[in-house]
Amino acid sequence: xxxxxxxxxxxxxxxxxxxxxxxxxxxxxxxxxxxxxxxxxxxxxxxxxxxxxxxxxxxxxxxxxxxxxxxxxxxxxxxxxxxxxxxxxxxxxxxxxxxxxxxxxxxxxxxxxxxxxxxxxxxxxxxxxxxxxxxxxxxxxxxxxxxxxxxxxxxxxxxxxxxxxxxxxxxxxxxxxxxxxxxxxxxxxxxxxxxxxxxxxxxxxxxxxxxxxxxxxxxxxxxxxxxxxxxxxxxxxxxxxxxxxxxxxxxxxxxxxxxxxxxxxxxxxxxxxxxxxxxxxxxxxxxxxxxxxxxxxxxxxxxxxxxxxxxxxxxxxxxx
Amino acid sequence: xxxxxxxxxxxxxxxxxxxxxxxxxxxxxxxxxxxxxxxxxxxxxxxxxxxxxxxxxxxxxxxxxxxxxxxxxxxxxxxxxxxxxxxxxxxxxxxxxxxxxxxxxxxxxxxxxxxxxxxxxxxxxxxxxxxxxxxxxxxxxxxxxxxxxxxxxxxxxxxxxxxxxxxxxxxxxxxxxxxxxxxxxxxxxxxxxxxxxxxxxxxxxxxxxxxxxxxxxxxxxxxxxxxxxxxxxxxxxxxxx
Lengths: 320, 241
Known about the structure:
The complex is a heterodimer. By secondary structure, chain A is mainly α. Chain A has one domain. Chain A has helices at residues 6-26, 29-54, 63-78, 84-106, 111-131, 133-136, 163-186, 188-198, 200-204, 210-236, 247-259, 266-281, 288-302, 306-314, and strands at residues 142-143, 150-153, 156-159, 238-239. In chain A, the strands form two sheets. In chain A, strands 1-4 form a two-stranded antiparallel ribbon. In chain A, strand 2 and strand 3 form a beta hairpin. The longest helix of chain A is centred in the C-terminal third of the chain and has 27 residues, at 210-236. Chain A starts with 5 loop residues before the first helix and ends in a 6-residue tail after the last helix. By secondary structure, chain B is α/β, with parallel strands linked by helices. Chain B is built from nine helices and ten strands. In chain B, the strands form two sheets. Chain B has a six-stranded mixed beta sheet, with helices on both faces. In chain B, strands 2-1-4-5 form a four-stranded antiparallel beta sheet, covered by helices on one side. In chain B, strand 1 (5-14) and strand 2 form a beta hairpin. In chain B, helix 3 (96-107) packs parallel to helix 5.
């Protein structure tokens, strides 16, 4: 698949990162902020794609991992008064712990049962947030106070509420996760994940412990999604239960399907496309979700492999 | 000489059916052993128990002196038991090369450089005559070539025991001749356990033959002894009119 031309693939990815960097200097205020948000959510989609696209495991509970990062980081600041890096690490750590536990339990099932089990766990997580409203803020959510969202390096300090700093932080996270994803996909481990997706029984009989490999995929995916959630709390300053609701389990699935499952750049493209369609249509009508729905149906009918998946199939076979 | 594989009282029931019923079986290193028997005799269940795809109801399996009864399938593969599927089970969407690279990247002991993997993959493909099709999607291979790919994947595991479950099923006569040569060649480095319906193939290849009937071993012996065995003719080859 991607064996042929690694140089082309790396050039393309670096080109996309350079383009996003350049956009920071030309985009007007509103779109500048929106693109920062899209990059953070694209990280969420990339985490989802790791498990769904490459390992072939369809989870309907990823809001839980995003939420673990969001609340892990947000509450560390609000309740414990931790610094920004420590809060980010707390969010990431929560994601790893939650995904490890959920993985151990949910991977006893496959297929539809896996979808239902992950969805149920995510519902439990969501209801726990509402139940412990004293700490979490319940359905109102909580604002991460602006003075706490400052990154201190000795004498200098970076204010994450500053649009440029926020954009660059989002881009930095996006870049790191994109390059990690690319490295995993091209590694031996990535090939084993694809093998499990294509034919799990065969992979077992080639000597691979498919359970451990899938568990690893859940944890990597959960950690990436939690990183996105933690960044969201720190950069946009709001920690709310709606981010742990079932809607945020469905959204990454849609973004990935739109952009192209099992493509490294598909998650960014899908997230971008969905936001663009919503942005354009909501300008014309309040029933914009109807138009989004129709666009999705058309895409699934005519481009079942998503935008990049179709491009890879028809023209650019080397896309990773 | 210690046997490579021994089973003691190996049984597996599905509901009320005893598919494999207290089987005591011994396989010596370097042998080509054919397992034959009527449909439903428990042959595939037996090799599935050996490879670890299914768990026994009771009994023990000993491989190279160690009890492997509780080992999961993937761990048995790492010990050197390779299984090729009766129903072709390849990665249809991946290239032939990628199909073989998966077992190779597991078994390479020294270094995982790209060139080391490539050399081992091409060796397995050349052995099975698939080298010129390396970059085709495996799903586009003809059925006969898919069977060969299945064997190439088994070979790439560098097994000590290679289990072939009806490898010639659905092959043309000309392909079968090549297959017989291939299995002979493999047997110089590995022990082969072969389930096969095609009697000429069995008679050409097997050092010894084990006959299954209704979950039990009915008879065991050299091809000549089996051919002359009256009980076998009754159960399997059919009584003379």
